[in-house]
Amino acid sequence: MPRDVTCASEAAVTELLLSLKRLNVAAKAWPVGPRKLTASDLLHSLNVAGLVVQEASVSRFIEALTDLGLVEAGEVVADPRRFPWQRTLVALREMRSEVSAEHGRRCVEELLNRAWAQHEFGVAEIAEEVLDWLLQINDARPVGRSQDL
Q1: Least confident residue range of 40-44, 91-95, 103-107
Q2: Helix or strand holding residue 136 (H, E)
Q3: What is d(CA 89, CA 77) in angstroms, rounded to the nearest whole number?
Q4: N or C, which terminus of the chain has less Cβ within 10 Å?
Q5: Which range (83-87, 97-101, 132-136) has the least confidence?
Q6: 71 phi/psi in degrees, rounded to 5
Q7: What backbone phi and psi angles, to 5 degrees, belong to 148?
Q8: How far apart are the C-alpha atoms of 108 and 91, rounded to whole Å?
């Protein structure tokens, strides 16, 4: 994750991979980059999370984030965990959750984090590739080897 300068920085991931290699543990890293924040993708993701919201509201929300300076040309340009974006949630005021209003806010927060590319949910986009790799590694293991990945 190129924007993460802490635990998932390129240097930290490289060091971890080298440590695992020294222990003869198969490991691979996949880059997770930023993702455009579009009304249709955000609407779909919110719906999948069980939130009911209208596309017009999602568009207003993205416009409010743009006016606030968090989004430029569909890209989240600052870390949403350190940016006061929550006041723009008024654009999603009719968003409904069967769980709670807090559930809706948390889902939006996680989706913004993903758009910023500081989030493990990016793995969902490469899950099939990761699972294929894990299956290949498993097939290549010597019989009786007990060391886990």
Answers
A1: 91-95
A2: helix 127-140
A3: 18
A4: C
A5: 97-101
A6: -120, 135
A7: -80, 160
A8: 12
Tell me the two tokens of residue 134: 């894990």
* Cβ–Cβ < 8 Å for 35, 122: yes
Place of tokens 């965990």: 81
DSSP 42-80: HHHHHHHTTEE--HHHHHHHHHHHHHHTSEETTEE-S-G
Phi, psi of 145 (to 5 degrees): -75, 130
Structure tokens at 9: 């920085």
Q: How confident is the model at residue 38 (pLDDT cuts 50, 70, 90)?
A: very high
Cα–Cα distance between 34 and 126 in angstroms, integer?
14
Return the structure tokens found at 10: 């390129």
Domain ranges of the chain: 1-31, 39-122
Nearest to 113 by CA among 141, 146, 80: 80
By C-alpha distance, which of 128, 118, 15 is closest to 76?
118
